[in-house]
Amino acid sequence: MPALVQICIVIATLALIVMAVMVMIVLLRLGNELARLTQSIQIAIIQIEHLTQETRDTLSAVRDLVTPAKGVWQRIQRLGDRAVDLSTAVLDEIEVPVVTGIALARGVKAGTAQLLETLIRRIARRSSSQNGDQSHE
User: Fold this and answer.
1) pLDDT in tens, 12-37
2) Rounded CA gap, 16 and 10, in Å?
3) How far apart are alpha carbons 20 and 27 in whole angstroms?
4) Which helix (H) or strand (E) element contains residue 31?
5) Are 42 and 50 in contact (CB under 8 A)?
């Protein structure tokens, strides 16, 4: 065989060996990186499980608080309704007598004012008629 063909076969063989070594190195690095990635994923999964458990515990505590809070809220609501009913009943009972009393007071005031005005006019007429009347003496 000619020497040139033998040199080409040697170069091709060396190139193939170099490529095989490079592929092995890349595969080793890829394996290492995959191992790190797997380890990171496992740590993340553990943290997520821990967070999930804490969330469940928190939700359980919130549920335990919501039930009594609902009861307290319902009691407050009932008390508010009762207070409104009581104030409505009191106002319904007091409103008519108070309005009647106010109307009566206004009527007495107006009547008294009218009576005093009439009396003052009569007194003024008497005194003016007596002052100017000579025959009265």
Assistant:
1) 999 999 999 999 999 999 999 999 99
2) 10
3) 10
4) helix 3-132
5) no
